[in-house]
Amino acid sequence: MWHEDTLTVLQEKHRYDKKLYDVINAMNEAKSFDGIFNLYNEILMLVDAERMSMYVLDYDKKELYTRVPAHIDVVGEIRLPLNENSIAGYVALTHKSVNLVNAYNQEEVARISPSLVFDGSWDKKTGFRTRQLLTVPILHGESVVGVFQLLNKKHGKRFTEEDEENANLIVKPLGIAFLNHILLSQKQRTKFGYLLAQNKITQEELNAAITEARKSKIDTESILMDRYKIAKADLGASLSAFYNCPFIEFDPARILPCDLIKTLKLDYLHKNFWIPIQHEGDTVVVLMDDPYALHKCDIVKDLLPHLKVQYAVGIRADILCYIASSASQTPNKDPIGDIIGVLKTEEVEEKEDDATTRVNENDSTVTRLANQIIIDAYKQRASDIHIEPYGVRADTVIRFRIDGSCVEYQKIPSMYRRPLIGRLKIMAKLNIAERRLPQDGKIRFRLQDREVELRVSIMPTARGDEDMVLRVLASSEPVPIEQLGLNERNLKELKNIVEKPYGLILCVGPTGSGKTTTLHSVLGYINKPDKKIWTAEDPVEITQRGLRQVQVQPKIGLTFAAALRGFLRLDPDVIMVGEMRDQETAAISVEASITGHLVLSTLHTNSSVETVIRLLDMDLDPFTFADAMLGILAQRLVKKICQECKEPYHPSRDQYDELARNYGEEGFEKLGVPYNEAFVLYRGKGCAVCNYTGYRGRIGIHELLLTSDRIKRLIQSKGRSAELLIQGKEEGLTTLVQDGTLKILNGITDIKQVQAVAIR
Ligand SMILES: [Zn+2]
């Protein structure tokens, strides 16, 4: 069985190389020394040691220092003088490695150099007991930039030559990363240091730009972008590094805290280049061109009393854009706060008048209110608007669904509930007098640059009220296939099957799991002039040039099946059917896919293998179906941890066990993430950027079943779903939970999110 052994050795080696490669990438991407120190766990996994230390040389102070990530130890920063008294110091000065069997054996230590002593004080502080100690210099060319230390060999009595070789594999890229940060920290002491350090611009060019800026009285940032073609993102990174705060660009969709801005003079903001751009609870984020300008910061504090101020840096042109857009968002253009203000004063007058319903749906305030709700929903990326009346006595609540969760948007006085719903009914061309039956309609709403379509549903509720839900169908662009969050295997295999000339590909999951988005990404990937692509959708939410898109209308007989039959006479290469709702659509789809067309569709099933069983239950011929099927992608959406406030934490053993159980204990062990003090997961603390939820945006978790020969045979023999799953796993399938668990380990999402969507 030698070949199998060779195979495992090779696989092992491959896994190791992959991890090493990932760690090197992470080192290069780290934005600071702390970023590198925080790779502690990842690096420790690559060596056979219980602990390790990475020291950087501080040239100015002639010291070696390291910072121990908080989840490893309480020690924090360690500094050693650069002399031959400590082992790390000795290695840094002599450039020689030192390999000790017992650090406490003074005889062994003195053999290396008579004045050398092992300093056991750290052991005392931490309760750790150092035995074996391997120390190697981190060199860059001829010069030393740091020292790398391994403590206590896990398997064996002493560190071997192989350990030393392994350490050297890590030390090389570490040296490069350290050197970059040493250079960076020297250069970053100026606003544009990052650009210099990254070789985006030379010192001469920068000097010229600064002189020119001074002469022409324009800011240097603008000159760097216009004349020297520096990308805004690079400029932002440089400013962000220098000011140690986020860089925020102009985004026309951002909702500004108009209530706060109203209290400030726009002229003044204009002259001083700052503006509050976010206000949550008692925290305000102020965007400023120079957050280190203390006199400006003092004024900000005076003008925004009782608020905690956080700063963000922006370029002047963007700040002016925000100020201009706040001007257009304030009074004359009706921000919701103003309208509600008007509603409240009118309400008081109403009561005094003792009139019951003097306001009607044609009232200008009501019209403005209805419009503003739609505009805000669109700007806040809401998928649905919920209008929920609570009778006469309580306010009517309006909620938006954003990233899958409902959030309260506004409360409006109860007397406006009927006029508002009436107004929206008129916009949707519905019967305004009908209040006892459900109704459905559609609103086409023009925003400055695009049209938003809303599907309106009304349901009569208790107390003679009506609830209204509006689904926002903003026509949008397809997401590139690479940005769906597919793991490496799934992305590669999915790209592979969608390039096939014919066959059936299904994307499955419950409502709101992003199936249509995924199919459109796939279509975007294969949408080339040499292919004719027809789609039947309900509704058409994403439009792409090159696709011929049909909106199905079951009411007049244009069903999915009818559209599909029609497409076959229209010389298609690729057909997308929004949903395989019935046996007829499924049967025609399969037929079309074995007669030379690539057919994409979705199905409302929970997992990939369950889909096979469901389709066979629909009376499809198992042989034809097995031939047609290329792959089934099951998916769910999970919320992503907010990147701005993400932090590592050391989970309890129970949580770890739960992860392992969810993943499947056997498979989990193979991932090589043992539970020890170095094991960390991530969570979002909550910050102004994510509305203090700790989450921002969503990402897919996936399960891709490919139709291999063995899977085909199982389908033909109507195999059970358990058999299909086992075979699929053998061929590399990761289940939804497994993919989710990997995304938890990678700090993209958390246990709660994955459990909510993928565990029953
Ligand atoms: Zn956050």
The CATH architecture of the largest domain can be named as 3-Layer(aba) Sandwich
Tell me the major beta sheet.
Answer: 7 strands, mixed
Low-confidence stretches: 330-334, 350-356
Q: How would you state the average pLDDT, rounded?
A: 86
Estimated radius of gyration: 31 Å
Strand content: 15-25%
Shape: globular
Mind telling me the CATH class of the largest domain?
Alpha Beta
Regarding quaternary structure, what we see is single chain
Q: If helices are DSSP runs of H or I spanning 4 or more residues, what is the number of helices?
A: 30
Total count of domains:
3
How would you describe this protein?
The chain is an alpha+beta fold. It has 3 domains: 2-187, Beta-Lactamase (2-Layer Sandwich); 336-474, Beta-Lactamase, CATH 3.30.450; 481-758, Rossmann fold. It has 30 helices and 24 strands. It has a 7-stranded mixed sheet, with helices on both faces. Strands 3-2-1-6-5-4 form a 6-stranded antiparallel sheet. It has a 6-stranded antiparallel sheet with strand order 12-11-10-15-14-13, with helices on one face. A hairpin with a 2-residue loop joins strand 5 and strand 6 (143-153). Helix 16 (336-353) runs antiparallel to helix 17, helix 17 (364-379) packs across helix 18 (417-427) and helix 29 (736-745) packs antiparallel against helix 30. The longest helix has 28 residues, at 2-29. Residues 330-334 and 350-356 have low confidence and may be disordered. It binds zinc ion. Zinc ion is lined by residues 642, 644-645, 684, 686-687, 689-690, 694. Zinc ion (ZN) binds next to loops.
